[in-house]
Queue: 3 jobs
Job 1
Amino acid sequence: MTSLATISAERMNVPTWVWLTTIGVMTAVLLLDVFVIARRPHVPTTREVGTALAFFIGAAVLFGLGVWYFAGGSFAGEYYAGWLTEYSLSVDNLFIFLLIMARFGVPERLQQSALLIGIIIAIILRAVFIALGAAAINTFSWVFYIFGAFLIYTAVKLAREGESDDDEFEENRLMRFVERRFPATNEYHGAKLFTHVAGRRLVTPMFIVILALGTTDLLFALDSIPAIYGLTKEPYLVLTANLFALMGLRQLYFLIGGLLKKLVYLTLGLAVLLAFIGVKLVLHALHENELPFINGGEPVQVYEVPISVSLGAIIVILGVTTVASLWKSRRDARVDTSAS
C-alpha cells in the first residue's frame, strides 16, 4: 500500500500527487463556496455558519488523524500545534475584519462575499510566504534566529498594547495610494468590484474593502508564518494548517463576532504564545548551528523543545486566555449592573 508520506531522515516526504490532490480539493471547496454565495448573497443564519464551521473543524481534526496514521504521531503533533496556533492568530484577525466592515459600512448581505474573496487572496499570499519561508530555511539554517527574534519582538509589542480600546481602523499605505489613484463610487453595486458611471470605469467600495482584508491578513502573515515554522519545518503541514485555519474563518466571523469583545486577554495570550515559539526557534537555531561557547571552544548542547511540550503549552496558553477573558468579562458585567 502506498502511504501518503514516508519518513526519511526525520523529514516528511510527500508525493507530488498528494500535494496536487490536497490543493485540488481545497480549490474545489472554495469554488463551491464562491458559486453558492455569488448566486445568493445573504446574511447567514447561526445554524448555517455553525454547521459549516463544524464541518471545517471536523475536517481539520480528521486530517490530523490521517497524518498520524500515515506519517506518525510526531508529525501529527506538529500539524495540530500549527493549526491551533494559526487558528488563534486568525481569531485576532477577526477583530480587525469587524473594524474594516464598520469603517466602510459594508451591508450585512455583502459581508460574506467580501470575506470570501479576501480570504482567497490571503490564501494565495500566504502560499507565496510559505514557499519563500521553506526556501530560506532549506538554504540558511540561521534564518531561525531572525524568525525567533521577530516573534519575540512582536510578543513584546503585543504585551505593551495589552487590552486595546482602539476601535478605529487605520488604512495602510497601499490602500491610501489606491484611493488617491483610482476614482471610486460612494455606493455599493452588489458584490461588483468595478462599475461604469457616465462612461467612466470606477472601482466600488467593495474593491477597497477586499483590498483592506487581503493586505491586513498579509501583515498578520508576517507573524503567523514564522510562528508555524517554529513548530514544524514541513511545508506540507504549514500549508494545510493555514488552509484549514483560513477556510473556517468566514463562518467564525459571523458566529463569534459578539464574543470577540469578551476575549479581553486575547492580545496578551497571543503575546505569550508568540514569545514561547520565538524562544523555541532561537533554541532550535542554537541546536542546529552548534555555536561554540566559552568552554574550550567546544559547542554546548542546547535543549530543543519537543513537539509534545509545544502542543501542550499552546493548549494551556489558549485555554487560560479564554477562561480568564470570559471570567473578567462576566465580572465586569456584574460590576456594571451593580453600579447602575
Job 2
Amino acid sequence: MDKLTLNQDILFAPGIFDQLSEIAKYDVKEAGMCIAFERTTAAAFHILRATEDVLRNFYCYIIKRKRTAKLNWGNITSHLATKKKKGLNGIIKNLDYIRENFRNPTAHPEVRYDIEEAQSLFNLCIDIMSIMIKSPLWKKG
C-alpha cells in the first residue's frame, strides 16, 4: 500500500522515476493512489496520461526537426516508425499495443476497469516508460 500511495518511485528501477517530467510524476502518483483506493478507471486515465507524456518527451529527444504537427500518441508512433534507429521498433510495437487496446478505448464512457485490469495496465505502462527512459535514445537523439 505504501508503494502505491507514498513511494511510487520504488515501482521503477533506480533513477527512472527521477527522469519523469513533473506532469508524468503527478499522474503516476495519482494512478497509484487510485489503484490503492480501487478507483480503477481513474487509475487507467492517469497512467495512460503519464505514459503519453513520457512518449512525447522521448519523441522530442529523438526528432529535433520536422516533428509531427500534433503531438498525439498515434501521430508520434507513426512518425517514429519511419525512423531507422536501433531499438526503436520494439518500443513502437509496445506503444501501439497500449494505444490500440487501452488508451483509445479508455476514452469511451462504456469502458470500465476492474482492479486486475487496472493493475496490469499500470505495470505495463511503468514497463514501457522505463524502457523508453533506459533507451540509449533518451535525451541523446
Job 3
Amino acid sequence: MTSDLPITAEPDPALEQFLADRLYEFNAAATGMDDGLALNIAVRDGHGAIVAGLTGHTWGGCCEIVRLWVHESQRSRGLGTRLMRAAEAEARRRGCDQIVLSTHSFQAPAFYERLGFRRLASVADYPRGHANIVMIKRLLGSVRI
C-alpha cells in the first residue's frame, strides 16, 4: 500500500521549525516549564568559514547536545573539548542538572566518556552494523538563574 501523503527527501527548515515550535508549546504546557533556550557555538577561521560548532538546547534543568562537529584539520587540538566545556559551563549557568546526548559507535563515545559522560542506553543496528549510544553527564554545582 502506498501513501497518498506527499513525501519528500528534500530538507525543509520551515517545516522543522514549525514542528519544533508546536512540540515545544505542547511540552511547555504539559510540564509547566517554558525556559527552553537554544545553545549554539560556532568557531570560525580567519575567512569566516565554520571550522567547528555545537548545537543543542536547555530546558527544564537539562541540556541536550544535538550536534558537535570539528573540521578534520582542527581535530586533536582540544577544540572539541573546549566546545563541550563551554556548553557545560553555560548549562550550569542556566541551572541544568545534567547533559544528555547521543553519538554513534563509530563517532565519539570514548571522547565523551573522557569528559565524564556515561553510557545510558544503546540502540543496536542504528545504523546497520553500528549502535546509537545515549550518554549522560550529571552536573554538580549548577546555578539556577
